[in-house]
Write a structure and sequence with these properties.
The complex is a heterodimer. By secondary structure, chain A is of the alpha/beta class. Chain A has 2 domains: 31-135 and 262-332, Bordetella uptake gene, domain 1 (D-Maltodextrin-Binding Protein, domain 2, 3-Layer(aba) Sandwich), CATH 3.40.190.150; 137-245, Periplasmic binding protein-like II (D-Maltodextrin-Binding Protein, domain 2), CATH 3.40.190.10. Chain A is built from 11 helices and 10 strands. Chain A has helices spanning 7-22, 55-71, 86-94, 108-115, 151-160, 176-188, 200-208, 223-227, 275-290, 292-300, 312-332; strands at residues 44-48, 75-79, 101-106, 126-135, 137-142, 166-169, 193-196, 214-217, 231-237, 263-270. A 5-stranded mixed sheet of chain A has the order 2-1-3-10-4, with helices on both faces. By secondary structure, chain B is mainly α. Chain B has helices at residues 2-13, 16-34, 40-47, 56-81, 90-101, 105-141, 144-155, 166-180, 206-227, 243-248, 250-264, 271-285, 297-321, 327-338, 345-350, 352-381, 388-405, 410-428, 433-456, 468-489, 491-495; strands at residues 183-184, 191-192. Chain B has one domain (2-489). Chain B has a two-stranded antiparallel ribbon. Chain B is built from 21 helices and 2 strands. Classes of the chains: A alpha/beta, B mainly alpha. Chains A and B meet through α2, α3, β7, α7 and α8 of A and α6, β1, α14 and α19 of B.
C-alpha cells in the first residue's frame, strides 16, 4: 500500500482507463446535424467563469476543440474569473440569449443557487447542453508519511492532536469541498483545522512540503502527484470503490452514511435561446463529448473512472439533486438560505 | 551541468524550426509585455492551442522564452509613459518615469535592459544548477506564515516611497490596503465592499488600478500643466548609464537577484511580489530614502533585476514539483499536458532533453534582452518626441483597451478612470501613488497568507515567532517601522 502509485499502480491505472475507453459508447448516434436556419453562421462565444489554466479552463478548451473539430464552428473562449464564478455567471446572463453564447460552469453554480435562490438555477434558468466531467473527491496524504498510513490510523492520529491537525482545502464556505469535510468530520468524530487555499498549486505544495497533514481534492487534479508516488489516497468519497482505486476504502465502508457530493463541470445555454438552436447545440456538445480528443482529455484527468456523461435530462437530475442536498446542508448549518 | 547545457543549446540551435520559435517568443514576449493590457499572458493564451502542433520541448520552451522577455517588455512603457506593461513593472515606473521627465530616459531604459538581462541570466544559472534541492527546500520551509512575514517586511518601508511626509506615506499605503480588501475574503469567500455589484466580488484587479493610478493620473497632471502653459515635453536622452554608474549599484543588483529569486521560487507568488520586494529592499538599505520615487536610478535597477530574477526561479517549483508560480507558469502546465506530460519530479527522469532545451532557451532569452534591448532602445526613445496632444489620447486609448481586455469587464474601465482621478487629486496633496499600489498588491498577497497562516497556527499568533524565518522577517520589519517612526518624530525630520 505504501507505494500504491508506483510503476505497477500506474500500469494498473492505465489498464483500467484503457478498458473504460474501449467500453465507451457514444450516446449520440447522429454524426451530423443540419444547421437550423444556417445557425451558427459565425463563431460561438463560450464564457468561462474561471481562468484558462485551471480545471474549468482546461475542460472548456478541450470541449471547444472537440466541438470545432466536429462542426467546423469556431468557439471563442471568454474567461471572466472571480467571485467563485459569479462574475462569469452575471456576464453570461446579461449576454444575448441567441444561442451564440454558451457558458461553462461547475457545481458551484448549483451550490450558489441553493444558498440564494435569486441566483440562476442551472437546471431551469439555463439549459444544460452536456455535463462532461463528473468526479468524486478523496483525502490524500504524503506517500512517505510515517505518522499514519491509512484512514483508520489517520483518524486516530487526528483525534490525538486535539484539533491541531490540518488539512488543505478550498477557501469558500459552503462549497462542495467544505460541506463534504463537514460531513466527514461529523461522521468520524474528529476535529481538524481546514486551511483555505483558493489556488491549486499552493494547496498541493502545502501537503508536499509538510505544511499541512492531509489534502482534500479530486483525483484528476492531483494525478501527477499520484503518478509520481508523492501522494496517496486514503479515503474515497463515493458510493463504491472505483477500479483504479480498488485499495482505497469508500466513506460508506468506514461507516459514513452521507450521500457524496460530486464535482461536475458542464456547458449551458440560456433558457430563452431559440429552441432549434438549442437542439443543435445539444447535439454538438453531446457529440463533442464523444470525440476522440475529448475522450483522451477526460482520460488524462481521471474523468473516465466513473460515468462523466450527462445529457440534458441527466444533467437536470444531477443538478436538482445537488441543489436539494446543498439546501438541506445549509439549513442544518444554520446558514441564511434564501 | 555544463554538458547538459551544451546539449540543450545544441538541440535549441540545431533545428531551424526551433530557432524560429525561439525568436518568435523573444520578440513576441517583448512586444506583448510592452503594450499595456495585452500582456505576455494574452500572447500565451492565444498561442496555447497552437502548441499542440509543436513538440513538447518547443511548446514549453516558447512559453518559457515569452515569460523571460515579457517580464522585461513592460519596463519600457513604464519608464517612458508611466504605463507599466504588467503589475511586475509597476515599481519600475516609480523612478523610471520621473527620470524620463528629468531627461534621463536613456539611462533608465538602458539600466532596465541591462539589469533585466543580468537578473534573468543569474536566475537561469541558479535554476540550472539547483532546481530540485531548491524546490524541496522552499516548500518545506516557506509556508503562508513566512510569506505573510515577507509581505509585512516589504510593507514596512512602503511609506518611504514618494510621499511628502511619512504620515502621508502611511496613509497612502493604508488606502492601498483598504482597496485590497474589496471582493471576496480569502478564507470564507464572503463578499466585502461589493455593494451588491457582482463584478466587484472579484475584487479590484491590479492592471486597471495600476493604469489608472499611473497612466491616467499622469495624463491629468500633464493636461493641467498644458492648460496652464507650464507643460514642457520631456527631453529625449540617448545617454545610457555608464559602466561606473552601474558598478556603483552592484550591491543593489545582487540584492535584487537574491530577493527576486527567493520570491520567484515560492509557489503561487511570482514576479510581481519580486519586483515590489526588490524595490522595497533598495529603499530600506538606502541612505537617501527620500530620493526614491523621484527619479533614482537604483529604483529602476532594483525592480527590473528582481522581476527577471523571479522568472528562472518560478520555473523551479513548476518543473521540480509541478507547482506553477503564476498565471503564465500555470499555462505551461497545460502545454505539458497537451503532450501527455506532467511537470513534476518525473519530468527530470522521463524528459531530460526537454528540461535542458528549456533551461538553455531561458538563458539565451535573457541574453537576447540585452542585445535586442540595446538595439531597439534608441528607436523607442524617439516615441517621446510625439507631441502631448497626440500622445495623451493614444495613451488613454491604450490604457482603456488594456484595462478592459484583461477580464472583459466594463467595471475595470471605470476603476481605471476612478483611480486616475483619485491619483490626480492625491498627488496634488503630497500622497504617494507608489505607496497606494504597494499597499494594494502586497495587501492582497499578505491578507491571504496571513489568513492561511492563522489557520495553520490555530489562531495563536505567538506561534508565528516559533518559526525562525517568519520571526526574523517580522522582527526586521518591526525594526524598520520603529526606526521610521522615530525619524519622523526626530527634530531634524520635523523641520524638513
Amino acid at each position: 500500500m505504501k507505494k500504491f502509485f508506483g510503476t505497477g499502480a500506474i500500469a494498473a491505472a492505465v489498464l483500467a482507463l484503457s478498458t473504460t475507453g474501449y467500453g465507451f459508447e457514444c450516446a449520440v448516434k447522429e454524426g451530423t446535424m443540419a444547421k437550423p436556419g444556417g445557425f451558427p453562421e459565425r463563431a460561438l462565444t463560450m464564457i468561462v467563469p474561471y481562468g484558462p489554466a485551471g480545471g474549468s479552463g482546461q475542460v472548456a478548451g478541450a470541449m471547444a476543440e472537440a466541438v470545432t473539430g466536429l462542426t467546423s464552428v469556431a468557439i471563442n473562449r471568454d474567461h471572466k474569473p472571480g467571485g467563485s464564478g459569479t462574475v462569469g455567471m452575471t456576464a453570461y446572463m446579461a449576454a444575448p440569449a441567441d444561442g451564440y453564447n454558451v457558458l461553462e460552469h461547475i457545481d458551484d453554480a448549483s451550490s450558489a443557487h441553493a444558498l440564494d435562490s435569486s441566483r440562476p438555477n442551472p437546471s431551469s434558468d439555463l439549459i444544460p447542453l452536456v455535463i462532461s466531467q463528473v468526479t468524486f473527491s478523496q483525502i490524500y496524504i504524503r506517500t512517505n508519511e510515517d505518522r499514519f498510513n491509512d484512514w483508520p490510523s489517520f483518524v486516530k492520529w487526528v483525534k490525538a492532536q486535539n484539533g491541531k491537525a490540518t488539512i488543505a482545502n478550498v477557501s469558500k464556505e459552503g462549497s462542495m469541498e467544505r460541506v463534504t469535510m463537514k460531513f466527514i468530520t461529523e461522521a468520524s468524530g474528529m476535529t481538524i483545522q481546514q486551511i483555505s487555499f483558493d489556488k491549486g498549486a499552493p494547496r498541493y505544495g502545502a501537503l508536499l512540503g509538510g505544511q499541512v497533514d492531509a489534502l482534500f481534492e479530486q483525483p484528476g487534479d492531483v494525478r501527477k502527484f499520484l503518478d509520481a508516488g508523492e501522494f496517496k489516497p486514503i479515503l474515497t468519497i463515493f458510493d463504491e470503490r472505483p477500479s483504479v482505486f480498488a485499495d482505497v476504502p469508500t466513506h460508506r465502508e468506514v461507516g459514513m452514511k452521507f450521500d457524496p457530493l460530486l464535482r461536475f463541470r458542464g456547458f449551458y445555454v440560456h433558457k430563452d435561446a431559440p429552441a432549434d438552436r438549442v437542439k443543435w447545440l445539444q447535439w454538438a456538445f453531446q457529440r463533442g463529448y464523444c470525440q476522440d480528443s475529448y475522450q483522451a482529455f477526460n482520460e488524462s484527468k481521471f474523468m473516465t473512472v466513473i460515468d462523466s456523461y450527462r445529457d440534458t435530462a441527466g444533467a437536470r437530475e444531477l443538478i436538482t439533486r445537488s441543489v436539494a442536498q446543498y439546501r438541506d446542508v445549509y439549513k442544518a448549518m444554520g446558514l441564511d438560505v434564501k | 551541468m555544463l554538458e547538459n547545457f551544451i546539449a540543450g543549446s545544441g538541440a535549441l540551435f540545431g533545428d531551424p524550426t526551433t530557432i524560429a520559435i525561439f525568436v518568435f517568443g523573444v520578440v513576441g514576449g517583448m512586444l506583448f509585455g510592452a503594450i499595456p493590457g495585452v500582456s505576455m499572458l494574452t500572447l500565451a493564451a492565444i498561442l496555447l492551442p497552437f502548441t499542440a502542433e509543436l513538440t513538447a520541448a518547443q511548446g514549453v520552451m516558447l512559453f518559457a522564452v515569452i515569460y523571460c522577455t515579457g517580464t522585461y517588455g513592460g519596463a519600457i512603457t513604464a519608464i517612458l509613459f508611466n504605463i507599466p506593461g504588467a503589475p511586475e513593472n509597476a515599481p519600475t515606473a516609480f523612478d523610471g518615469y520621473p527620470m524620463t521627465q528629468q531627461g534621463k530616459s536613456g539611462k533608465a531604459v538602458g539600466a532596465a535592459v541591462l539589469c533585466s538581462a543580468i537578473g534573468g541570466v543569474a536566475s537561469a544559472l541558479i535554476m540550472m544548477a539547483a532546481t530540485e534541492p531548491l524546490a524541496k527546500w522552499a516548500i518545506r520551509n516557506i509556508g503562508p506564515p513566512e510569506i505573510f512575514a515577507l509581505v509585512f517586511f516589504g510593507l514596512a518601508v512602503a511609506s518611504s516611497v514618494g510621499a511628502r511626509t511619512i504620515w502621508k506615506g502611511w496613509m497612502s499605503v493604508l488606502l492601498g490596503l483598504l482597496i485590497a480588501t474589496i471582493g471576496q475574503d480569502p478564507v470564507g469567500g464572503i463578499n466585502r465592499y461589493n455593494f451588491g455589484y457582482s463584478d466587484l466580488a472579484a475584487g479590484i484587479a491590479f492592471v486597471p488600478a495600476i493604469l489608472g493610478f499611473f497612466a491616467v493620473s499622469e495624463i491629468f497632471v500633464q493636461a493641467e500643466k498644458k492648460a496652464g502653459g507650464k507643460y514642457t515635453a520631456p527631453k529625449v536622452s540617448m545617454s545610457f548609464p555608464t559602466i561606473v554608474e552601474l558598478w556603483l549599484h552592484k550591491v543593489a543588483v545582487l540584492r535584487s537577484i537574491l530577493v527576486g529569486f527567493f520570491c520567484g521560487i515560492l509557489p503561487g507568488i511570482g514576479a510581481t511580489l519580486a519586483a515590489f520586494m526588490g524595490y522595497g529592499e533598495a529603499v530600506r538599505w538606502s541612505k537617501n530614502k527620500e530620493e526614491f520615487g523621484k527619479g533614482k536610478l537604483e529604483g529602476v535597477i532594483s525592480s527590473e533585476t528582481a522581476n527577471n530574477a523571479a522568472t528562472g526561479a518560478a520555473m523551479i517549483p513548476l518543473l521540480a514539483l509541478g507547482l506553477p508560480g503564476g498565471a503564465l507558469t500555470a499555462m505551461m502546465v497545460a502545454v505539458f499536458q497537451m503532450h501527455d506530460l506532467e511537470p513534476g519530479p518525473l519530468v527530470f527522469y522521463n524528459s531530460p532533453d526537454l528540461i535542458w532545451i528549456v533551461f538553455a532557451a531561458m538563458f539565451y532569452a535573457n541574453l537576447s534582452i540585452l542585445f535586442i534591448g540595446l538595439i531597439e532602445t534608441k528607436t523607442i526613445l524617439n516615441l517621446l518626441k510625439i507631441p502631448f496632444q497626440f500622445l495623451a489620447p493614444l495613451i488613454l486609448l491604450l490604457a482603456t483597451i488594456g484595462a478592459y481586455i484583461s477580464r472583459g469587464l466594463v467595471l475595470d474601465v471605470m476603476v481605471m478612470f476612478l483611480a486616475g482621478i483619485i491619483g490626480f487629486l492625491l498627488r496634488r496633496t503630497g500622497f504617494s501613488i507608489p505607496g497606494i499600489v504597494l499597499g494594494l498588491i502586497l495587501g492582497k498577497i499578505g491578507e491571504q497568507n496571513f489568513a492561511q497562516g492563522m489557520q495553520m497556527v490555530h489562531y495563536d499568533i505567538g506561534t508565528y515567532f516559533s518559526r525562525p524565518i517568519c520571526a526574523l522577517l517580522i522582527a526586521a520589519g518591526s525594526l524598520t517601522l520603529i526606526v521610521g517612526i522615530y525619524k519622523a518624530f526626530a527634530p531634524a525630520s520635523k523641520t524638513s
